[in-house]
Amino acid sequence: MSSLQKTMSSLQKHDQGCTAPRCRLARLLIAVAAEPRYLSQQQPAGLTGALVRCGHPATIIDPEDARALTLSGLDLLIARGRSAALLELLDRAAALGIAIVNPRASIESVMDKARMGRALAAAGIPIPPTRLDTMAELVASSTEADFPMVVKPVYGDNARGVCIVHSLEELAALPWKEPVALAQPYIASDGFDLKLYVAGAEVHAVRKPSPLSFKSGSQAVPMTAGLRELAFRCGEIFGLELFGVDCIETPDGPLVIEVNDFPNYSAVEDADDMLARFAIARARAAREERKR
Fold first, then answer.
1. pTM exceeds 0.70 for this model
2. Mean pLDDT over residues 32-36, rounded?
3. Nearest to 262 by CA among 236, 243, 239
4. CA angle 70, 73, 75 (to 5 degrees)
5. Nearest C-alpha neighbor of 59 from the set 36, 86, 77
6. CB-based contact 218:208 (threshold 8 Å)
7. What does the alpha-carbon distance between residue 37 and residue 171 come to, in Å, rounded to a whole number?
């Protein structure tokens, strides 16, 4: 755990009772910049609702309408999204010295799945063997031993464009519109992925149905020192504070499939309050830092 995570852990524990009057007296200025497509999802709606209950109502910013918005005075800006307008907004906030979760460079480092995979592999994080090439080159260099194969776009979220291909003929016939593709061997599982959800110093593990399966239902997984260390290592590689790590469980331990900035934290018990604790502690630390 990094020094920042240790500090955040102490502050988050201190804020367990965030509905107490002392919190309401020291209202923090927190804003959440979110693309409109996320406003109907579990997050950031859950976070902002929990902040209201703690006496710190957050300003919701639409990045597309934010060019004339004054950001000065904010204690913390939290980003949910990856659009060009949102990334530009983060640049403005950074220039003003506002604390940001997650910063632009961190978001961009996980937007590109090829770049993300290289960074994970370079840090010694276990990942599936991965190839990056044009579809024509993937067809030319693949053999029947490479199937079944998972093919995915370099950019995309929410499992967009991810598919399983079972033969060379199926790969050649795949209607692929992207200039290149990522190819990984399909790793057999029981149809569930292991998700590690992190908010500052708090980590939760959940088994959830893989987007490539027809399973249903989710289940919390007891946290272990190994899973906690894996989650924190992934966050430190990309400079993320709110993030999720998608893994596949194998007999040799979890393989990391990808890392995502600010996920929905679905199936995490009391996720909204956890995120609010993080945001309050992070904003308070940023305010104290400015006073020094």
1. yes
2. 96
3. 243
4. 120
5. 77
6. yes
7. 32
